[in-house]
Amino acid sequence: MAASCSFRSVVRAPPLSRSFARSTVRCRSAATPGAGGAASTSSKLVVEVKERLAREHPGLPTGSNGRDDEDMILWFLKDRKFSVDEAVSKLTKAIKWRQDFGVSELSEESMRGLYQTGKAYVHDSLDIYGRPVLVVVAAKHFPSTQDPVENEKLCAYLVEKAISRLPLGTENILGIFDLRGFRVENGDLQFLKFLIDVFYYYYPKRLGQVLFVDAPFVFQPMWQIVKPLLKSYASLVRFCDSETVRKEYFTEETVPPDFRS
CRAL-TRIO domain: from which residue to which, for each copy (predicted)? Predict the structure, then answer.
């Protein structure tokens, strides 16, 4: 195993989950309303987006995570600071991706081969901030021998699974990249770019924080390439050791088995 090195932590303390519903967001097309007025304005914008999607993109699916899913529309409106044009554009891309990628058809059974490698999983317990936890074990990722499309499908399935476990009032998840034992052959820039797109375009604001745990020296060149691609998402990254994971993010009863001392 390569010796671990100390990267500068971009985030020094784990942030508390912040609710979009409680954030102060000014609608671009209206003056600052009161609480009731804000809700009324949001509802009108949701209807406007839904009508535009139906009119401009009638071929998009409907139902859960479809063009008439009002919860999804509201989430993307908030992500785009209530710009209808931007929300329509981003939603169209996200819904088309879900349809083309077959997200609704993914299951543990369909992913069984890769799932059983243990390279990535959703932890059974929440962290101390009430967030579902997605763990990636980098040393079990071998891009030269594993199908890249299947890797991407496993990623999408696990993100969906983590989000489905969000408790009421919690809106984002914790991602943990276990880098212990990481070697050059585990590096996969193509997959990391896919992962960045997933959380920016298709699941915006769903990633609350990312922990890179016990990163070895050989990971540093990849980080220097990936960091600029993350843009504002780089502020979500924290480099830490396994002890920090145990003490700052979980209780003795809830810590993932791989991180128990």
Answer: 108-261
Give the pLDDT confidence of 115-150 residue by residue, as tens digits.
Answer: 999 999 999 999 999 999 999 999 999 999 999 999
Give the integer Cα–Cα distance in Å for 220 and 13. 22
The alpha carbon dihedral of 30, 95, 71, 174 has a sign of negative
Sign, Cα dihedral of 164, 203, 116, 238: negative
Full-model pTM: 0.84
Q: How far apart are CA 126 and CA 18, in angstroms?
A: 16
How far is residue 202's CA from residue 156's CA, in Å, rounded to a whole number? 10
| Contact yes or no for 140/117 (Cβ under 8 A) | yes
Q: Is pLDDT of 7 > 70?
A: no
pLDDT in tens, 190-201: 999 999 999 999
Burial of 190-210, coded b for 16+ CB within 10 Å and e otherwise, reads ebbeebeebbbebbeebbbbb
pLDDT of residue 36: 64
Residues 6+ apart with CB under 8 A from 206: 159, 163, 171, 172, 173, 199
Instruction: Please report the pLDDT score of residue 39 as a whole number.
Output: 80
Instruction: State whether the Cα torsion 73-78-82-84 is positive or negative.
Output: negative
Please state, in angstroms and as integers, the Cα–Cα distance from residue 53 to each residue in 49, 67, 99, following that order: 6, 6, 15
Q: Tell me what the pLDDT averaged over the chain comes to.
A: 88
Give the DSSP letter of residue 232.
G
